[in-house]
């Protein structure tokens, strides 16, 4: 595993699937955000603390996904997460959803903007955020 990647594993549950037996498209974002939460905790920025303290709020301003192969109940999935871009006050995260045999099932990307308590965009990301995510900046997108 590339040290600039963070891995998160989950199994597709029955309630993740639609009437056709596939992971419903919207649920991909739930799993992407679960991976993101685990990543943020791993780099010392657990979302529960950020939200409780209220100083660092990072809502999503963009989310996208591509679906290459169906994921079905019981599939073991590894989400490979990397930081795609760090801007003045936002950063982009990419996610690669792989099955146990390495098949690429889906990719996703989210953009997180730092905002102030009043909801306005912050002047910039803090050094704490920048230092925590910089080791995972990967210019070759995992897609
Ligand atoms: C967030 C907003 C208040 C920003 O509004 P505003 O119009 O003032 O923004 P700007 O146009 O000036 O852009 C600022 C900045 O953002 C970049 N940006 C904006 N849109 C996009 C986009 N679609 N794609 C990419 N980038 C975008 C823009 O380029 C600028 O960046 P620069 O680097 O160039 O300066 C307003 O947009 C707003 O309120 N939006 C709604 C947000 C929302 O409701 N999101 C969905 C739910 S939030 C959520 O899921 C969530 C997840 C978390 O993980 C959290 C973690 C911690 C706390 C809270 C979380 C959270 O709420």
Automatic annotation (TrEMBL):
SUPFAM superfamilies: Thioesterase/thiol ester dehydrase-isomerase. PANTHER family: 4-HYDROXYBENZOYL-COA THIOESTERASE FAMILY MEMBER, NOVEL THIOESTERASE SUPERFAMILY DOMAIN AND SAPOSIN A-TYPE DOMAIN CONTAINING PROTEIN (0610012H03RIK). It comes from the Bacteria. Belongs to the 4-hydroxybenzoyl-CoA thioesterase family. Keywords: Hydrolase. This is 1,4-dihydroxy-2-naphthoyl-CoA hydrolase. Pfam families: 4HBT_2 (PF13279). InterPro entries: 4-hydroxybenzoyl-CoA_TE, HotDog_dom_sf. One of its GO terms (molecular function) is fatty acyl-CoA hydrolase activity.
